[in-house]
Structure formats: C-alpha cells, structure tokens
Specification:
The complex is a heterodimer of chains A (320) and B (138). Helix content of chain A is 73%, strand content 0%. Chain A is an all-alpha fold. Chain B has five helices and five strands; from the N terminus they run H-E-H-E-E-H-E-H-E-H. In chain B, helix 4 (89-93) links the parallel strand 4 (83-87) and strand 5. The chains are: A mainly alpha (320), B alpha/beta (138). Chain A binds chain B through residues 39, 43, 46-52, 54-55, 57-69, 224, 228-229, 232-237, 240, and chain B through 1-2, 4-9, 11-12, 36, 39, 41-44, 48-50, 52-53, 55, 77, 79-81. The complex binds iron/sulfur cluster.
Amino acid sequence: MSGFWQGAWTGWRLAFSLLVFPGFLFSVVIGFVLSWVDRVVTARVQYRKGPPFVQPFADLFKLLLKQTIVPEGASRLVFLLAPMLGMISMTITAVLLFNVNLNPQGSFVGDLIVLVYLFALPPLGLIIGASASRNPLSAVGASREMTLYFGYELPFLLALVVPIIKTAQVSGGIWTIRLGHIVMAQQQAGPFLYSVSGVIAAVLVLLAVQAKLGLVPFDQAEAEQEIMTGVYAEYSGVALAMFKITRAMMLFLLPLFLITVLWGGFGDWWAILKFLAIVVLVILIRNTNPRLRIDHALRFFWLLLGGFGILAVILAYARL
Amino acid sequence: MSKLGLWGLKKSPWVYHLAAAPCNNCDIEILELLTPRYDVERFGVVLVGSPRHADALLVTGVINRKSLPRVLEVYEQAAKPCLVICIGSCTCNTHIFRNSYNVVGPYDKHLPVHAYIPGCPPKPEAMILGVVKALSKL
Ligand code: SF4
C-alpha cells in the first residue's frame, strides 16, 4: 500500500511541477509580466506612456474569447496542433531549467543537448503552422524563419561549447554536458562569463536569443510592414493565444538559460538583477536597430558571428 | 460571452485599418493616434497587420462598386466578435461624393456598423471617444 501512495505522491509532484511551478502557470505569468516590461520600455524609448500592467492578460483573455478560424483549404489538424508544439516544449524547458538551478546535484538527466532541441521546437512549430495555413505571406514568413533558424543555430552551438570546455577544465578533465555539472563548476570557479571567451560566448548567445524571440533586428519572419506578421497572419483566437504564450515563456526562459550556462546559475538573489539586465538589454537592442534583410542576417550569423564563435572556442581551450 | 473575455475585449481592442478609397486624410489622422502625442497603446489599442487578429475594423473612405466586394471579404475574414467603426464623413453618409456614379451608399447599408465618427477628417480625440463609446455599448 505504501508503494501505491508513494507512486501517487510522485505523480502528483510531477503534475504540479509541470502545470504550476515551475512549469506552465508560473512561467506564463512571469513571461507575461516580462512582455509588459518589454512594451513599457519600448514605449518609454519612444517617449510614450505605454500600456497598463494588466495588458498582456487582457490580450490573452480576449484572444481566448475570439473565434478561431481555420482558413479554407488548410490542413486542419496540423494547423491547430502546431501552436501546441512550442508551448509543450517550453513547459518542459521550464521544469528542467528550474530543477537544474535549484538542485544542481540532482540525479535526473538534464543536459545541454536536450535544451538545445527543446529551444528548437517553437520555431519548428511556427514553420509547420505557417506552412499549413495556405497563405502566401505565411509561406514567405515560414521560409524566412527557416533560414534564420539555420543562421543563428551555428553561433549558438559554438557559444555553448565554451561552457563545456570550461567545465572540463574546472573539474579536471572530465567531459560532461550535464547542466548540473556546468552550474556546479561555476559555483566552484566563478561564472564563466568573467573571461574573454565567456564574454564572446555571452554576446553570441544574446544575439541568438534575440533571433529566437523574433525581435528586431531579426524579426524578418513576422515583419509587419512587409508581410503582415507573416507566420502569424492566418492565426486567430485560441491558436494565436498559444503562440503569444509560447513567446512570453521564451522571453522568460531564454535569459534564464543564458544565466544558467554562462553567468553562474540561479543560485542567489543577484540572479534576479542579472536576469532583468539581460531582458532590458534585449529590449534596448530591439528598439535601437533596424530590421536586417534575411540574406544579410544569414551572412551576419554565419560569417561574422560564426568566426567569433570559433575564436571563443579556441580562447576557451587556451584557458582565457 | 464570458465576463473575463469581455473585459479583455474592452481593454485590448486590436484595430485593423481598412482604407477603402479614402482621400488619405483620415488615414493620416488614424496614424496620428499611435504617435507619442495620443499614444492609444495606453488603452491597449494596437494596430495589427492581418484582419484575423482584428477586434475592430477602422474603415475610411467612400464605398464604391470596386471596393465593396473587397471590404465585405475583409469583414468576413476577421475573427468575430469584430466591431466596424466608420471614420470620416465619407463612411458615415458618403459626404461630397453622394451623387457620384459609382458610389454605392454608406457603410451601414452593407455592414453592421458599431460607431460613426463624422468629420473631414475627424480629430484624433473624436476617434478615441467613438471607440470608447462603441466598446462601452458591448
Ligand atoms: S472624410 Fe474627408 S478626410 Fe476622410 S476620407 Fe473622406 S474626404 Fe478624406
């Protein structure tokens, strides 16, 4: 009997951590607060006042009430399932990241590769949904999103090699990609950011975060002025709300990920300040740059940032 | 309509700007609303690029034989509930183009209109007032 209760307790805890804290509910609420911060800072940059605090929640409730239209001739199932892909993957990411930070010695397996794949799912959902919607503007958006994805993934992965090398150096030559080990190594030897290669890697990850969030200068996939929000053009109602939720969760989780792998994890209260600093930096980059053309963006990521990525790996290897 | 959803609709009306043969003056006044001077994002108003996202269609210009089918199509593409807000005298009563050969009458002959904002062009303050009145009727 006690085995049964233990099983029920574990199941309940798993469900709680997926649905409430630190999974779905918690990260959505924080993400919405952050998207309010984003809109208010943007407004302040433009000498406006900006929306009230409850604005993202009002947007959400309104979208839930609205009609969800499936365009004529679109693949109904794929069109409606695609928005869920990103939402589910971000929920799992939230649980993994928080467990790693709160309990780095824990025995569960959460490694860097899993997170890289989980962060690849939201753009994939976007591409699938946009391609299923049978709208020429969405198709252009989907192709741009795909190009952009291949663009930013190269410097992103190169930058993530840096913490792996540094962890191996700290822990005496044991190669590992476990996030828990990376966090523990940083608690031992100080955050990886405070070195030349760490700074380069952080800048690369920051730019990749900008592109993953689809913010200017890397918002080609949804350029309002050219292709009418591109990938989102055919989405309405609940499906659009799911995309908004995914976007809000990413705004919360990507900076958290950056802190985890390069800036010492989420161990102390300073982490909140670090977190806000990254978010504000992302918003300011967004507000002070023009949109790049898609081929320029690709060249920027592959030639310039790819070169810096290789440099960062070599410097990390040389213990700089 | 649930209470929460209705509250959301009132606090976050996303508008789609549907210019059906205006003289462009009304459009410029609409864009004025988004500038720092009036900043309608304070009230949650956002200009969206796709009729699927719209909660209110801001229509401008006098409706004619060419633009009528397009306007109807955009209205059908919008996710309901969707308000139609007529901006400018052209939309309310066809204005000086009344006796023109291809004008097919004011908007309320073809679409359910929720607010009329007369003026040539109306002031931005008048537009905000009109949207507020249309929303408080819901
Ligand atoms: S109402 Fe006046 S300003 Fe507006 S579109 Fe008509 S003619 Fe132009």
